[in-house]
Design a protein that fits this description.
This protein is 73% helix and 6% strand. The protein is mainly α. A two-stranded parallel sheet has the order 1-2. The N and C termini lie far apart (39 Å).
Length: 161
């Protein structure tokens, strides 16, 4: 089970990078040719009803990160796990800026970290549940959801830049 949960975490992180950097596009050359560097250092400066859905999306998509860190890093304290989430998000945003693909935004870092925080809290609230069964449920559900997401993207969604 440990190998499966670690593999799931690795695959999830790769897909998360694919989402954050390339918005699930498979045409990497087109994305890199369509470079536009944008930087927003003021949190929630671009807040609007249209951006609210994107902010919530960032929050939700990082919840599994917290859950999977809970499953895989049991001996690591909460704040260290949260710092992993923060630094992953920061690194992804920094990569966006360096490669000039999309908008580098502090709001994204905040919302991504908040999503991971929620995942860690949800995992921590499970003290009253058999942790082995919970871990198994998270790994099985995560594997199924990740597979469905990738298949859905590859079969139905057309991403254009």
């Amino acid at each position: 089970m440990k190998t499966v949960s670690k593999t799931l975490l690795a695959v999830y992180l790769l897909i998360l990078l694919w989402l954050v950097l390339f918005k699930f596009s498979l045409d990497f050359a087109a994305i890199l040719d369509h470079q536009a560097r944008s930087l927003n250092l003021i949190p929630f400066a671009t807040y609007s009803s249209g951006n609210l859905s994107e902010m919530l999306y960032n929050l939700v998509v990082f919840i599994p990160f917290g859950l999977l860190l809970g499953v895989n890093l049991k001996q690591t304290n909460f704040w260290e796990k949260l710092s992993y989430i923060y630094f992953f998000s920061f690194a992804a945003e920094l990569t966006q800026f360096i490669v000039a693909i999309g908008t580098t935004d502090t709001t994204d870092i905040i919302m991504n970290t908040a999503g991971g925080f929620l995942g860690l809290v949800l995992y921590g609230l499970s003290k009253y549940v058999d942790s082995e069964k919970l871990d198994r449920f998270i790994v099985v559900a995560g594997t199924i959801l990740l597979t469905v997401l990738v298949l859905f993207r590859l079969l139905f969604l057309r991403v254009r830049y």
